[in-house]
Amino acid sequence: MAEHHVVVIGGGFGGLEAVNGLKNANVRITLIDRRNHHLFQPLLYQVAVTTLATSEIAWPIRTLYRDQPHVRTILAEVVGVDPNDKIVRLDNGQTMDYDTLIIATGSTHAYFGKDEWAHVAPGLKTLEDATMIRRRILRAFEAAELEQDTDKRRALLTFAIIGAGPTGVEMAGIIAELAHKTLHGEFRSFDPAEARIILIEGGPRVLSAFTPELSEYTRNSLEKLGVEVRTDSIVSGCSEEGVSIGEEFIAARTIVWAAGVQASPAAKWLGVEADRAGRAIVDENLRPAGLSDVYVIGDTAAVASNGKPVPGIAPAAKQMGAYVARRIRSKLAGTELPGRFNYRHQGNLATIGTRSAVVDFGKIKLRGALAWWLWGIAHIYFLIGTRSRMSVAWSWLWIYLTGQRSARLITQKEAAPPPAPPST
Amino acid sequence: MAEHHVVVIGGGFGGLEAVNGLKNANVRITLIDRRNHHLFQPLLYQVAVTTLATSEIAWPIRTLYRDQPHVRTILAEVVGVDPNDKIVRLDNGQTMDYDTLIIATGSTHAYFGKDEWAHVAPGLKTLEDATMIRRRILRAFEAAELEQDTDKRRALLTFAIIGAGPTGVEMAGIIAELAHKTLHGEFRSFDPAEARIILIEGGPRVLSAFTPELSEYTRNSLEKLGVEVRTDSIVSGCSEEGVSIGEEFIAARTIVWAAGVQASPAAKWLGVEADRAGRAIVDENLRPAGLSDVYVIGDTAAVASNGKPVPGIAPAAKQMGAYVARRIRSKLAGTELPGRFNYRHQGNLATIGTRSAVVDFGKIKLRGALAWWLWGIAHIYFLIGTRSRMSVAWSWLWIYLTGQRSARLITQKEAAPPPAPPST
């Protein structure tokens, strides 16, 4: 058994890429995650809108490394790190020594100090988030079928999505299609096409990471699908009854949060400096100051490359994971260490409903049906394993041909709301 | 709009068959279910053992009737019936008049007075039951990877299934395959083949509804798969620590209940006589005594046919649903009413792992691989819609070819145990 022990916390894109990069290196690896599955987050919104089933975008992590005896997978929650003694603490009381530690624990939703909004405006980070949002969307239509009060029915059929980045745009587009196409003819007391889908963005345009032309195209496409796009609109309140934009109140019983993220507490564990989003500030080699055997990668880390902050997206996490693996290999082999981490931006992609997308590869910019096919092929390519690729391709093909979505299940009961916060 | 209003409570096999049988009859129908989906219960155990995804065996009920405007689907829980005023009461406070009422609300688990076992020995009736059992099975293996105490690990790797009817037999066979084949090579601190699967049956043989020869064959097949079969074994206790058979205690952290069912409270709603399992006693036309406009069908009803009690299985529920629809049509048309309900038993089927099954069609009895193919084809045939048939066929084919199961996800947190019952 190899002597050098690498502990990787987090089985997301960054963590898996680091483990993969250390294949056949002379190390033993322990991969710790609090979930038993790797989740393909870029398609998570499709679970929330009944397009895909949970098992199509999630894979048991330990299956991926079944043939690599040097990798041990642990299902546990990390509660702390002691970088002086080089120890990771688990929630079951056990500890684990490491020689090198890679923290790739991702991020969660941020409500900008309004944590009381979390219960009424869930974000989309886990499979449970997705099935909860799916449940709320479907239940709203079901409740509308029984509602006799016109105003209340209107509120039930109003869906507000806060934040017009790729996730918000994609959610809004598919909810519109769900309401206006998939559910057509299924209700007797109202026409699901009456459903109102509102996409609310604080900034001046949707998809701000894309070019203004693609943003404009996206806005027009969404509006053709029946989405109301509200830019320059700062949300001032969220409740069970609806959402407020400044002084204006919109009655909406379903609210989805796609507006901000907060890094996981890696910086706190390590006692190192963090930026405003809670991301650990790391050097050009992805190490927090003063800790030469710890790397922080993915959207848990704050780092700049070529003078610009590296975005919190899957390709960046994968590049960081691969970089760290290269560094560890070089160090153990005694060869020259790779230089500073350089992020190569490969492009931005987002879909708008079933037959349209926008793609920005820098020099190449595409929109419409061709972009949509490219988006679909790229995402299928990045899924893990033949089984998932065929299954997702088949699910999409079925919806493309029939308009029918198979994962329209209301499961699990809604948890009771949390107790009211103490008044301050 | 038709004048005669038929209310159907329950979108299971019986309820849907009744609605289907009333197509083009001069009635309007309201179908009430507390879930938004019809569930193909015969394959539910395959969700619990990671073979199938939830969406492969469940369909949104309202989609089935999108093209039948005379059918209205309601997602609501029925809390009572007033047969004098011909009213159904819903949980949201609304009421609904009916001209004819069909109750097809199914059954739930029965713990024979030991309701405190329910939390540690869940049964298998809903999608949530299935994902909970799946979570417990997978978590047990995960916890075993971290457990350093040999006895505790042994308890984590012991799975007790109580009740050796078709569900118990099928669960035991597939858990054995999961442990001994699918998980092979994925753990570092133990060999999953060490897992102990115990099938506990109070009666003298497994699959008591089948012939003794097929029972014997099934027992031998299970034992070859590594299942310990304990017949004539009455469970005297269930706890978080394990299961007791008489004086013997078996440490087992995962227990599945497949031993008994209790009818839903239709008899209580109606104020009519019930049998010991809580089923409403109905006449030869499936009506409770004194209520000429109410039918109770499926495993909510206690009725005999040809001198034998009709079993609580899907084909019986479907036959009852079709019979009641025929009766209603005849009554409205003023033609001769069909005679008494006659149950035609079509046979018994059960699988034992992936390549073996037993089939008892009365004169024709099959076992082994041929029976397994027949079982598979029959079940795919009875699924609803091309999409599900192809999806399930594909999932099974993939497992058959690769041994890999795709739905190995631990989702949702375990609910806290219920408060201890008051001491008596």
Automatic annotation (TrEMBL), chains A, B:
Q: What class of enzyme is it?
A: oxidoreductase
Q: Where is the FAD/NAD(P)-binding domain?
A: 5-321
Alphabetical list of InterPro entries matching this protein: FAD/NAD-bd_sf, FAD/NAD-binding_dom, NDH-2, NDH2-like_C
The EC number(s) this enzyme carries: 1.6.5.9
The yes or no answer to whether the keyword GTP-binding is present is no
Q: Which terms does the record give in the GO molecular function aspect?
A: NADH dehydrogenase (quinone) (non-electrogenic) activity
Q: Where is the External alternative NADH-ubiquinone oxidoreductase-like C-terminal domain?
A: 345-403
Q: Keywords on this record?
A: FAD, Flavoprotein, NAD, Oxidoreductase, Transit peptide
> What's the protein here called?
NADH:ubiquinone reductase (non-electrogenic)
Q: What is the lineage of its organism?
A: Bacteria, Pseudomonadati, Pseudomonadota, Alphaproteobacteria, Hyphomicrobiales
